[in-house]
Amino acid sequence: MPVQVMDKSFPSPAQQEVGANFMGLESRVKETLHKAFWDNLKEQLSASPPVYTHMIQLLQEIKETILSLLLPWHSRLQGQIEEALDMELITQEAEHGALDIPSLTMYILGTMAMLCAPVRDEEVQRLQGVTDPVQLLREIFRVLDLMKMDMVNFTIQSLRPHLQDHSVEYEQKKFQELLAKLPNSLDHTTEWLHKAAAEVSASSLSSPSHPEVCGSPAPLSLGAVSSSSSIPSPMSVLNQGYMNLLRWEPSLEKYPETLLMDQARLQEVQLQVNQLTIIAAVLLVTSSVCGSALLSSPGFVDRLKRVTKALLEGLPHTRFREALLDISNHVHQEVSESLLQLGYPAFTSDKSASLKGQIRSIAEDDNAVRSVIEQRIHSFLSLHLSPSAQNSCSLSKGLAPIQEELLEVGHRFGSMIHHNRQVYGPYYLAILKKVGRRTQLVFRIML
User: By the number of CB atoms within 10 A of the CB, which of 144, 332, 443, 445 ranks highest?
Assistant: First the structure.
C-alpha cells in the first residue's frame, strides 16, 4: 500500500500563529489547534503505513528557519543545508516509505548546535536525549524560536549605535522643520520646564540654609551645575521635569511637545510605577500586621505579590480603590490559610478588620505608607536618569519584593529619557537659559 502524503488540510504551527495572536478566547483556540496538530502528527506517524504529510510540512519550516539564521558569509553551510534537507528528495522518500526521520533530526540538531548562541548549547544538547519523534520536533521548534530571538537581539545590538545616531539626527531635523512652520511649538515644553524650575527653586528655599546669591550665573549647559548652589542647575530642573512625568494628569496638563512621541510609553511606565507602589505598600502593611514569622514562610510573599498584581493588571489608578477591596479580601484569605498550615492561631476579628482596613486605606492619596513607598520608588527611578549612575542604584527598605520589576521599569524609563535628552537637549538648553535668568531674579527679590 502506498504511503499517503497528499493531505494538507491541517494547518502547521507557523500557519496557526498568523491568526491566533490574540488574548482570551483566541489564545485558547490557538492552544487547542496546537494540541490537535501534534496529536494528529502522532497518529499519522503511528499509522500503518505511516503518513508523512505533517512531518514534511514541519521539516520545510525547520529548514526555512535554520536558513533564516545564517549570516552572509555562511554560503557554504547554506549549500550543505539545501542538500541535506532537499524537500523534493524527502517527499520522494516519504512516498516510498524510506524516510529516515532519526537521521534528519540528528542533522538538524547538529546544525542547530553550530548556529546557536553559547547560552543555548545546553538546550540543544538536551534535545539529543529526546527519543519520541513528536516531542523532539516540538522541542526543536521551541529552541529555534529562542535562537530566532537571539538573532534579533544580536542584530539590534550590532545596529544600535548606528540606529541611535541616525535616529537622533532624524528627529532633530524633523522637529526643527516643525518649529520653522509653527514657532509656538514649544509652549507646553516651556511651561513644563518652568514648573520644574519653580519646584526645584522652592525646594532650595525650604532647605535649612542657602548661601546668598551673588554675581551672574555661569554659562549653562545641561551637564553643568549652576555657579550658585541656590540657583537650580539646568540638569536638576530637567530631571525634575522628567520625574514629574510619572505623576502626570493628562486631563489637567498638556504633554510637552518634545515628549509626544514617547507619551504612550511613558504613560505605560507611569501605570507600572503606580501598580508597583500599591503592590509594595500592600506587602509592607501585611508585613507590619502579620509579623516576620509569617512573611518568612516559603512562598508567602510571592503568593501575595501574584494576587495583588493580578487584581491590578490593566487598571488605571482611578480604579485602585475598588481593586484594593478585592485585594484586602484575598490577602486576608491567604494569611488565614497560611496561619492554619503553619499551626499559628487564627487572627481575631479585630486583627482581621485591621489588616483589611489598612490595605483598603492605601487607596487614599494621603496614606502614609503609600506616600513613603512612592517617594522611595521615585528616588530609585531618579537615579536612572543618569546612565553612569544606573549601576550603583540601591533599593530602599520595602522595595525588595518588587526589585526585579523595578529594575526593568528603571531601565525602560532611563533609556527613553536618555534618548529624549540627546534629541531635544539643545531646545531644553535654550529654554533653561531664560528660566535660569528669571529664577536668579526671583531669588534676589525673595532674599
Answer: 144
